[in-house]
Design goal:
This protein is elongated. The two termini are 32 Å apart. It is built from 13 helices and twelve strands. The chain has helices at 18-26, 41-53, 76-84, 97-106, 147-157, 175-189, 201-213, 225-228, 231-241, 250-254, 265-280, 302-308, 314-319; strands at residues 30-35, 63-68, 90-94, 112-116, 136-140, 163-168, 192-197, 219-221, 245-247, 259-263, 296-301, 322-324. A seven-stranded mixed beta sheet has the order 7-6-8-9-10-11-12, with helices on both faces. Strands 2-1-3-4-5 form a five-stranded parallel beta sheet, with helices on both faces. It has two domains: 3-142 and 264-287, Rossmann fold, CATH 3.40.50; 144-263 and 296-324, Response regulator (Rossmann fold, 3-Layer(aba) Sandwich). Helix 4 (97-106) links the parallel strand 3 and strand 4 (112-116). By secondary structure, the chain is an alpha/beta fold. It is 40% helix and 18% strand.
């Protein structure tokens, strides 16, 4: 991780990085970037693409201050407060409700552009989708609301499974809704749903140990930025246990996971960059409607399927947006 991209403590203008003070003096606008995840370069590049669409290039006519929480939600409030003390023109948040809510609590004046999974109205981030009001707007990618659909897809992939393990994080704000949705999906399909809590690396390992001990034949990883920051670990544990697993972003499938179903997270970050650029040009968050995804993608990794000795139904292959060979 680049030292410039991660400053652990700030105590006011006297301790701002020299680069930030120079940018302030030169009049270059500064965007704060607050992420629950680790440094995912592909998402940052997507943000930069969106900024370029509106005429802004990092280092030339706009600066970005980065903060990464590495999946630790309790780091969000102090990091948001750090950024709010800087002379920001805009604050963008990645990684769902924890980052967006921390930013909203840290400032009522700095414009905020968020990417979250759930309903921003219920979360208290905006007044409505069409007229957000206040200082925040962004994109709702609806990932936690798709858990029931993912249970159904996993059932089609492993039709003989009478039980499915679902890894969920009780510390994630949409947890209760996710749990209700997967249990209801299991009831409809006649599948026994085993919800396994996973709030730390140790609990993730314990969850997969429970899968092996209980002989559960399939695993669903709930949508959660914490799990995004543990992507390689989750994929490796599923492979080691030889258990079919379904995830929420294509990056899990491209990292070796079996199947993913969800939105294009990169495009949501591009749109975040577009909105940030429009705010730099004078637009107000109150007038920018909250965006929602228009496309979902199913990605199947056939190499992972062959390693598991798993036959992927032709129906799923026909529905797939991408098949990784």
């Amino acid at each position: 991780m680049n030292r410039r991209e991660f400053v652990t403590t700030l105590s006011g203008a006297a301790t701002w990085p020299l680069a930030t003070r120079a940018q302030q003096q030169s009049g270059m606008p500064i965007i704060g970037y607050l992420s629950v995840r680790s440094n995912d370069n592909y998402l940052v590049e997507a943000l930069r693409r969106g900024l370029r669409e509106t005429g802004y290039v990092e280092g030339q006519n706009v600066a970005i201050e980065y903060r990464w929480a590495m999946g630790q939600y309790d780091r969000m409030p102090p990091m948001a407060a750090e950024l709010a003390r800087l002379p920001l023109a805009c604050l963008v948040t990645a990684g769902g409700e924890p980052a967006a809510l921390a930013a909203k609590a840290a400032t009522a004046t700095i414009p905020i552009v968020f990417v979250i999974g759930g309903d921003p109205v219920k979360a208290g981030l905006v007044a409505s989708y069409n007229r957000p009001g206040g200082n925040a707007t962004g994109t709702s990618i609806l990932t936690p609301t798709m858990e029931a659909k993912r249970v159904g897809l996993l059932h089609e992939l492993v039709p003989q499974a009478t039980k499915i393990a679902v890894l969920l994080n009780p510390n994630f704000p949409p947890f209760e809704g996710q749990e209700q949705d997967v249990r209801e999906a299991g009831r409809v399909l006649g599948i026994d749903i085993h919800v396994l809590p996973a709030t730390s690396d140790r609990e993730i390992e314990a969850a997969f140990e429970a899968v092996a001990h209980r002989q559960i034949p399939a695993v669903l990883t709930g949508s959660d930025p914490f799990f995004d920051s543990r992507r390689d670990v989750l994929v490796a544990l599923a492979a080691r246990q030889m258990v079919p697993a379904l995830y929420h972003f294509r990056e899990f499938a491209t990292a070796g996971g079996l199947v993913s179903y969800g939105v294009d997270i990169s495009d949501s970050h591009r749109l975040m960059g577009v909105y940030a650029g429009r705010i730099l040009q004078g637009a107000k968050p109150a007038d920018l409607p909250v965006l929602q995804p228009t496309k979902l993608e199913l990605v199947i990794n056939m190499k992972a399927a062959r390693a598991l000795g798993l036959h992927v139904p032709d129906k799923l292959l026909a529905l797939a947006d991408e098949v990784i060979e």
